[in-house]
Amino acid sequence: MRANREYRLIHRRGGRLPSRLAGADRFDQIEVVDIALGETILLWDLPSRDAPLTLRQLRIDMAQLEGAEFVARWRDR
């Protein structure tokens, strides 16, 4: 089963401004949650300027990879 069917991607912004306008001290949180268990599988606190690229890469991988492959690829990042 594809990862986007097994996991939910949650992005929490550290402020109201878009990431390209945010200050260097703002951090966003990206979380990958197992839908069946309701538990967090992966979690990152990233500078807000890095978050959009990471989200884009996560979405692409979630659409293309199986669940176990996805977790193995992203676990050590």
Summarize the structure in words.
The protein is an alpha+beta fold and about 80 residues long. The chain has one domain (about 5-75). It has helices at about 5, 50-65, 65-75; strands at about 5-10, 25-35, 40-45. Strands 1-2-3 form a 3-stranded antiparallel sheet. β2 (about 25-35) and β3 form a beta hairpin. The chain is elongated, with a radius of gyration of 13 Å. The mean pLDDT is about 95.
How are the elements arranged and paired?
Blueprint: H1 3-6, E1 7-12, E2 27-34, E3 40-47, H2 51-64, H3 67-74
Antiparallel strand pairs: 1-2, 2-3
Observed structural traits:
elongated, single chain, alpha+beta, 3 helices, 77 residues
What's a concise summary of this model?
The protein is of the alpha+beta class.
Percentage of residues in DSSP E strands? 25-35%
Unreliable runs: none
Structural class: alpha+beta
> What's the tally of helices?
3
Rg is: 13 Å
Global mean pLDDT: 94
Number of domains: 1
Task: List the quaternary state of the chains.
Answer: single chain
Helix and strand element order? HEEEHH
Q: Major beta sheet, specifics?
A: 3 strands, antiparallel
The strand count comes to 3
The separation of the N and C termini measures: 23 Å
Q: How much helical structure, as a percent, in the residues?
A: 25-40%
Adjacency order of strands in the biggest sheet: 1-2-3
Mass-distribution shape:
elongated
